[in-house]
Write a structure and sequence with these properties.
Arc Repressor Mutant, subunit A; D-Maltodextrin-Binding Protein, domain 2; 2 domains; elongated; disordered C terminus
């Protein structure tokens, strides 16, 4: 096999973005070059990776297996390169964070805002409501998830239901503070203590975390400790 790393990168990007043109734009090459990379990769492997039509593309079974295997390899390569860069103690590049909408908007956003002021050359992308599988394919560096089980998959929805007198709700203090102060909601069981469940910080399995990721996790843990929010790393 005539291995060419650029061909693999083009393929991974096409699968990730589901588009030749979007992959080309992100890789800063022409769409025709991306197409050439894919064709050359398929020729060197002797298999078809992508079934293409004028309006869509679909992975073959071999194409899906190739993507799964090589996206993991690419993640490890990127991790190693980040580690080498980190030896200079210079925090820059892109940090991708994903969290649930409710928790992320109220708790994580202020932490990111403060952290970005400490490292102005670091670009932080904060996505919400995305599956944690994005960690495995290298799309994100850190993910947050709460371990409590809700009657709805949205704290905001439960909160709104309570405000409209549709029932009682068990919600975190950080979401109810203003409503309780203005008497929009009242505590029904002030002496009842719910089981404290942790908030988890998840990150890809690397031999050594990139410095930007390690710094952000440490900063976030310190802030959550100050706010008395339970946390765990995984």
């Amino acid at each position: 096999m005539d291995f060419n790393y650029n061909r693999v990168i083009s393929y991974l990007k096409v699968v990730e973005l589901k588009s030749f043109s979007r992959a080309a734009a992100q890789l800063n090459i022409s769409t025709s070059m991306v197409s050439v990379h894919i064709k050359e990769l398929e020729f060197s492997l002797g298999i078809t990776l992508i079934s293409r039509t004028t309006r869509s593309l679909a992975l073959t079974e071999a194409g899906q297996r190739f993507y799964d295997d090589f996206s993991d390899i690419k993640q490890r390569i990127d991790c190693s390169l980040e580690t080498l860069k980190d030896e200079s103690e210079h925090i820059c590049g892109v940090l991708r964070v994903v969290s649930p909408w409710d928790y992320g908007s109220r708790i994580i956003v202020p932490i990111i805002a403060e952290f970005s002021k400490l490292y102005p050359q670091l670009k932080i992308i904060h996505d919400v409501g995305l599956p944690l599988s994005n960690l495995a394919n290298g799309k994100h560096d850190v993910a947050h998830k709460t371990t409590i089980r809700y009657g709805s998959n949205s704290l905001t929805l439960i909160h709104r239901m309570a405000l409209f007198s549709l029932g009682i709700a068990a919600l975190p203090d950080w979401m109810l503070k203003d409503d309780i102060q203005t008497s929009k909601l009242i505590r029904l069981f002030p002496n009842y203590e719910f089981t404290v469940l942790p908030v988890n910080a998840l990150y890809p399995n690397c031999i050594k975390l990139p410095l930007k990721t390690r710094r952000f996790i440490d900063y976030m843990v310190a802030k959550l400790d100050t706010a008395h929010v339970g946390h765990q790393e995984q």
